[in-house]
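Reopening this ticket.

The earlier resolution said the output was attached, but the attachment link was broken on my side. Pasting everything inline this time so it's all in one place.
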Amino acid sequence: MSNESIHMALHGYGYIGRLHVLASQLNAAAAVAAPRLVWDAAVVRSLDSEAAARAADHFSLVTDDLQALRHQPIDAIDIASPNAFHHAPFQLALDMGWGIYCEKPISHQLDEAQQMAQKVKEAGNVHQVALMYRFHPAVIEARDWLLSGQLGRALTFRAELLHGGYLNPSRTMSWRLQSGPSGGGAMMDLGIHLIDTLHTLLGRVESVTATTKTFVTRRSGQSGDEAVDVDDWASATLQMASGAVGTVEVSRVHYGRERDFIDIVCEHGVLHIPLEEYRGVEVHTYRTDLIAPERPHGSILQPLGAKFAQSTLLNLHATSLAAFARRVRGGTVGIPVPTFEDAVLAQQVVAAAMASGDKAGVRIQVG
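Inline output:
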């Protein structure tokens, strides 16, 4: 595998786009053994925007014309724009044969996401979705424990991802609070992460019952007082195909100590996965004969050293991007990476939860 640089284009230079660039710089500072990402071009919605002004300090090309990228020496594109704007850069990347790194969900509409997953599978482009909790040290270790069989069958689980971004009703309207550009609220934005992680650890979801709520129903926006038409909070009970059953709770109206974890109760003990902290899994068992599984993982998956590690979120984005960079140059990672197909499977569960919430909690089959 070559460690030569990978020339990147970025579609969208808002918060998440800037976070991706910062995460790649963390990899470079920590000397992570992955090809270096060189950010050559940024596509923004308007050249008069704050995003364009910020991008001009870091990119040799800043443009509002997606097609201008056709004339650049680009190896891969990072799609970090709002959910409704993913398809056009995705299609250009297919046409050009570039690698594709895409934020979740891959589309605001499930049917479009399904079409995109089929297209990229047929085209064969290296691709990956920023469902970065798969790269959490505790998730990797929990998966090793489950694969070892020592804890027996998974029985129940509880997953929570509680954020406080929108509790303040004075916070202005965002595209994330409108179903048109986002496709959904807390369950789409946050729940898709937990669902993909549960898929990785426990297999497919079979059915869902859910409750969804919107507590802050109106906010100040560009056209004045505007309606919020997505959920602020959601709770879902998931029945897994394996027989395990558990709950997922997500919120964007929490505050203070934000919570982000998964607990999995197995026949012989409990796995606690502290997603909000950058550390390994906790194993609680009444057995005295269990041995931590030894599953060798490559250097890409090793946690960042204490001198370079930053926030858990930034660290996970860094590892996810390092894995993508290695794969673009023909390398392997050692764990299943999140593909467009995986993102669709998670989005199907999100769609089922949203449908159940709209129908007062009726059970919805997935798929």
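Reporter confirms the inline version is readable. Residues 133-286+338-365 form a domain with the Dihydrodipicolinate Reductase; domain 2 fold (CATH 3.30.360.10). The first helix runs from residue 15 to 29.
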